[in-house]
Design a protein that fits this description.
This protein is of the alpha/beta class. It has two domains: 7-93 and 159-304, Glycoside hydrolase/deacetylase (TIM Barrel, Alpha-Beta Barrel); 95-148, no CATH class. 49% of the residues lie in helices and 10% in strands. It has helices at residues 17-30, 36-43, 62-75, 85-90, 95-98, 104-114, 117-120, 126-130, 135-148, 161-168, 190-208, 228-236, 269-278, 280-290, 294-304, and strands at 7-11, 32-33, 52-58, 79-83, 173-177, 214-216, 241-243, 262-263. Strands 1, 2, 3, 4, 5 and 8 form a six-stranded parallel sheet that branches. Strands 6-7 form a two-stranded parallel ribbon. Helix 12 links the parallel strand 6 (214-216) and strand 7 (241-243).
Length: 305
């Protein structure tokens, strides 16, 4: 029986097809799947879709093509995929994909040598620490690490142009922009922030030969990872709906350019069901048990500057 309030659930890489299929089956029991256009109707107040669910995928990881696309086709589930045209065309990985295999202590040493000792020694995980920097500085740290340890760039993690072409043919997939280089937009200058948004929308529209009208913010906490500045750039780029990572019920959405989403990454079906049933209480409990989360720690460090 479908009794849960409407929600949007976000994924990134999906490494296990059996896990994802089990999640799909569970979601179909708990919700009514809706398309991106139906989400727009819902959050704009045109038509309310009760007990609905929309699935989104950020980054354009290769697993979307190999794992997700066959399964959503089998079960006829509409989804949104947010990706960077620059990454698709160039074959470069996002910065966080490059650092995924780095030794954390050695990476922190590179941060120290590129950015400074005081910054590097702050009490925060090194990947979270990088999220306090402009993206060009993050790439400078990565180059330093790779040169110091004689490492080549990691193998390609994301879809290519041929795979994008096949994905774009699916009527179940709505394609949206996700910046060019996945920066925390609030860390960037006015010009860089605007270019990351506007150029990603324009370039993806040219690749697809159709307008792109949806967008997902990297990281995506309203007022922290992005601000009104970014929302104004989205409006200039012709974006009609943008997705945050604000973990709130869809019914509480009052901003069509900051639509909330919940994330799923792993867990047995029983845990996934508990997380969905608990709703906002799950995140409150998680933060209570874990203490300060990454976002809180980043905010506290920014206040000290």
């Amino acid at each position: 029986m479908k009794i849960l309030p409407s929600t949007i659930i976000n994924f990134h890489a999906v490494g296990d097809s059996r896990w994802f299929e089990s999640v799909l089956k569970l979601l179909l029991q708990l919700y009514r799947p809706v398309s991106s256009d139906q989400v727009y109707d819902h959050v704009s107040g045109r038509v309310k879709h009760r007990h609905s669910c929309h699935l989104t995928f950020d980054d354009g990881h290769l697993s979307f093509y190999t794992t997700v696309l066959p399964l959503i086709t089998r079960y006829q589930v509409p989804v949104s995929l947010f990706l960077s045209p620059d990454v698709v065309e160039s074959g470069r990985n996002f910065w966080f994909q490059e650092v995924a295999g780095f030794n954390p202590a050695l990476l922190r040493k590179s941060v120290e040598e590129v950015v400074g000792q005081a910054f590097a020694q702050q009490a925060l995980g090194v990947e979270a620490l990088l999220k306090l920097l402009p993206v060009d500085q993050i790439h400078a740290v990565i180059r330093h690490y790779q040169q110091t340890h004689n490492l080549a760039p990691a193998p390609r993690r994301n879809i290519n142009l041929a795979e994008l072409d096949l994905i774009a043919k699916s009527p179940l997939v709505t394609l949206g922009a996700h910046t060019l280089t996945h920066p925390v937009l609030a860390n960037e200058t006015d010009t860089r922030s605007r270019d990351e948004i506007v150029q990603s929308v324009e370039r993806l529209s040219r690749l697809l030969d159709r307008p792109v009208t949806t967008f997902a913010y990297p990281n995506g906490i309203p007022g922290f990872d992005f601000t009104q500045r970014e929302q104004e750039s989205l409006q200039q780029a012709g974006i009609k709906m943008a997705f945050s990572t604000w973990k709130r019920p869809l019914g509480s959405c009052s901003d069509i350019l900051a639509v909330p989403r919940k994330s799923l990454t792993t867990g047995r079906p029983l845990f996934v069901a508990f997380k969905l049933l608990a709703g906002q209480h799950y995140y409150t409990l998680k933060q209570f048990l874990a203490g300060h989360d990454e976002v809180t720690q980043r905010k506290n460090l920014l206040k000290k500057k």
